Every structure is written in C-alpha cells, then in structure tokens.
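U., I forgot to send this yesterday:
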Amino acid sequence: MNVIVEKFENVITKYPGLANFDQGARNGIIHVIDRILIYNEEEMAGNILNERIRIDVSAIFPELTNNDVRWDLSKSDELVTFIPSGFCEGLVQNNESCEIFYYRPHATYLGSWANYQGDELIVEGLYDFKYRIPHVPAGTYEIRFGYPRGYYRGICQFYFDEKICGIPVDLRWNAATNITIGWTSDKDDSGKQLTDEEKSENDKAMRNRGYMKGPASITLETGDNGGTMRDSEQSVRKIVGTFRLLKNRDYWLRFKDVTENSDGKNQFDQDYLELVPTSVLNNPLKPEDIY
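Result:
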C-alpha cells in the first residue's frame, strides 16, 4: 500500500491538475498511477497474450454503458431501447430498413433465451450493418460468432474487413440447421454422461462443420431447465475464420440478410464475440478447454 500511495504522490507532483483529485469512491479508493506497477514479460508473452478473448457484443459499444442504456438496474427487465443510427460510433447501419434494439438482462433458460449476461442486441428488418471489433495485440486469431439460434433469424452473409467469409449462414433453428451444425448432447439417451473421449470426438465433428458448442462456463437459469450454454442446443458458436490482425488498425465485421424472398422481418441476434489466438488452438500440450 505504501508503494501505491508513494506512486500517487509522484503522479500529482508531475501533474498539478490532479492536486484536488478526489480518491474516494462508493466502493473503494481510486489510486492514480502513470505506469504499470509490475510488468512480467514472461507472463505477458507466455500466458496473457495467448488467452481466448470473449466479450458480450453489447460491451463493444461504450455508448450503451455511458448513457445508461446497459446495466441500469432501476429499469424494468421488460424494457427495450431503440438504438438510432449513428448512436454508437463503432456500429454502422447500411440501410434504413435495419433497426437495432437493446433488450435489458432478463431470465435465460436452457432451450430458450440462452444469452450471455442475459441481454440482447437485436437487429430487425432486411438488415445490413457492421461493427468495429475491439483492438487486440497483433497476431493471428480465430474469430467466432456466438449466437442463440431462433426461428426468425434468417440467413446471413458474413464479411470481415469487407471481404466475404464463406457461404451464407442459416441462423434459424430448424431440422436443416440441426443437421448442418451437428450438435449432440454430452449425455446418452439414458441421461448418463458420455466419456471425455466421446465428448471430444463430438466437438471435433462440429469444428469440422465450422461450429462449436456454447461455453460450459456460462450458466443458464437453474431448476428443472438448469444447465450451461454447452448443454443448450440453441446456443452455438460459428467459426467465422482465421485472420491476421495488425496493431492499431480497425477491423469490421459486417452482417447482411440474404434470405431468399425475405419479408424484411428477420431478427438478427449476436450474443458474444470470441477472438482466439491460434497459439491457443495449436498447443497439443494444453488444448483449449470447453469453458
């Protein structure tokens, strides 16, 4: 603690404008520093920079938090907020028929409403929009799109950095997408857990199709319908592709409704984004976990 106090005094000496800075906070004390207190190159290079990054899509846009759209617990969980075009700097709507809504955190259940952190950013209409992904250290990353399948999701063409990523993706929940994704339960018909080897084989089969199960670290509503996203057939991750990301450069993900004979009423929902260094995927001694 003495080190932090001394560092604070050094900072306010160098920056006189902070002389009257109020360190007090409702749940702690704010210590102003001008550099990292401890930096371990081995830990950064060997661990921190080689970890999976998962971020709720609503957290990508600071305007939602800074303007009390997100996390205002005084509001009803039934509240839906319309997000006008241009409200978020890093969120661009390419046509007027594309409307965006924020649904406050609400109950999430195994089998329906399977959402990370309980909230949703919904895009409706004949959508065509894009958003800027967070800046990350330079490197090669696998980008994954986590979403809850739904009956009205439609078919979407993905773009990365304005380049088409593969064939259009059917985001709906129906027999055809069940076959395409190849999701299977971690339990057999009697309810008994499969072996780790059997689970791994199922996961490999899904990856070969370009999909993954939801994370086992995200718990859905408890009770008779309790479980994790991994247990939910609705919650899946689509592997968008592997890309080289450079330092201090903006990259954008774009989504366009290409549903044949679309009535313009499809509903797009992305739950979270994953940026995974390829070092995580290519380490046989420490394979990526299910969480």
